[in-house]
Amino acid sequence: MEETPLEAIPTFTPQRRNTKKWPVYLILTIVVVILLFLGFRAVSSYKSSPTPTPTPIVVSPTDTPTPTVALSTTPGVTLTPTVNPVDKDSGLDRSQISVTVQNGSGTAGVAVKAADVLKGVGYNVVATGNADNFNYTNVTIQVKAGKSDFLNLLKKDLGFSYTIGNATSDLPDSFSSDALVIIGQ
């Protein structure tokens, strides 16, 4: 056997891969995934959802009195709805009694809230403030003897929102209003 010189035998040297292409492949893969995701969302958003069937509103008549509203049509005048202050059962006109509402609970805003309730049905609320102490429980109502007709009406009107504790017609004539309402705890 004849020996061939080493130089004559071709040697195989492994070639290095170009490793600089992998970031390009990574970016392309990410772009393809994003496009697939966006395409899937676009297709799924076109699916139609069933439209709800509207429920009919049924109005049944009630015996609840509806306040009458008087509106002004004079230009430049603010339109303010007014409630009919006359009680249909007793015939008493709520606007004919002046009422002071006081906070006897110590909780901020209770006198104003009760005053709004009374104004909402037509009472003439002339003042709000704090009571002589914050130890009252429930609602105390005092009216002057000359306005004692209104005691039961005040109890009825406040009874929808509050628990009435004490109600008397012994308010001194020297008090500034015809009735005193103290909101307790």
Topology:
Elements: H1 22-45, E1 98-103, H2 110-120, E2 124-130, E3 139-144, H3 150-159, E4 164-171, E5 179-183
Parallel strand pairs: 1-2, 1-5, 3-4
Antiparallel strand pairs: 3-5
Note down, in words, how this protein is organized.
- The chain is α/β, with parallel strands linked by helices and 185 residues long.
- It has a domain at 94-183: Alpha-Beta Plaits (2-Layer Sandwich), CATH 3.30.70.2390.
- The protein is 24% helix and 17% strand.
- It has three helices and five strands; from the N terminus they run αβαββαββ.
- It has helices at 22-45, 110-120, 150-159; strands spanning 98-103, 124-130, 139-144, 164-171, 179-183.
- It has a five-stranded mixed sheet with strand order 2-1-5-3-4, covered by helices on one side.
- The radius of gyration is 42 Å and the shape is rod-shaped.
Quick summary of this structure?
With 185 residues, the protein is an alpha/beta fold.
What brief labels describe this structure?
185 residues, alpha/beta, Alpha-Beta Plaits, 5-stranded mixed β-sheet, 5 strands, rod-shaped
The gross shape turns out to be: rod-shaped
Structural class: alpha/beta
* Fraction of helical residues: 10-25%
For the biggest β-sheet, the strand order reads: 2-1-5-3-4
Number of strands: 5
H and E order: HEHEEHEE
Please tally the helical runs, counting DSSP H or I stretches of 4 or more residues: 3
Low-confidence stretches: 68-72, 77-81
CATH class of the domain at 94-183: Alpha Beta
Strand content: 15-25%
Based on the coordinates given, report the CATH architecture of the domain at 94-183.
2-Layer Sandwich
- Radius of gyration, in angstroms, nearest whole number: 42 Å
- How far apart the termini lie comes to 121 Å
